[in-house]
Design a protein that fits this description.
alpha+beta, 2 helices, 157 residues
Length: 157
């Protein structure tokens, strides 16, 4: 798979932590009128929907073949998000997604919602996903196909 490090303008907000790893996956996002809250900016609950879309397209783009979404071998067990800057209706934004760590039973991801024209980071989220067997509804090792594809894409040993 051909991959390229995504390079955006530098974020000027000193409160935003620097990424400790490259991002190879970006998903353009479309704002809708009903995504905007009463104070005129993107409602914070919508960021999580956008990050779910980012994870979905990330997995679709790096896994071999078609993803069977009715039998996904991972589930979210923790999500933390820090918000840094509001997003407004006519603003262009993208979701950057990376897996930063993977083990036999879990993977750690970082996602950022960013204005690709200014580099303004809107939020930074971390997510832990655990291996899961949908048939038994119990924890399981992460499917080796998923694990190997993620490790190869992210250059994780």
């Amino acid at each position: 798979m051909q991959k390229k490090i995504i390079i955006l303008p530098e974020c000027k907000n000193e409160k935003v932590p620097q990424a400790t790893h490259p991002f190879y996956h970006s998903q353009e996002l479309q704002l809708r009128f009903n995504d905007i809250d009463i104070v005129g900016h993107l409602n914070n609950s919508i960021y999580f929907q956008f990050m779910d879309l980012g994870k979905t397209t990330y997995f679709q783009s790096i896994l071999p073949g078609k993803v069977n979404w009715s039998d996904v071998p991972v589930v979210i067990v923790n999500v933390n998000c820090n918000f840094f800057s509001p997003t407004y209706m006519n603003e262009k934004i993208v979701c950057l997604t990376a897996t930063t760590k993977i083990s036999e039973h879990s993977l750690h991801m970082e996602q950022r919602i960013v204005n690709p024209e200014t580099g303004d980071v809107k939020c930074v989220a971390t997510c832990v996903m655990a291996g899961f067997d949908a048939k038994t509804a119990k924890g399981a090792p992460i499917d080796p196909v998923w694990s190997n594809a993620i490790k190869e894409f992210e250059s994780i040993e």
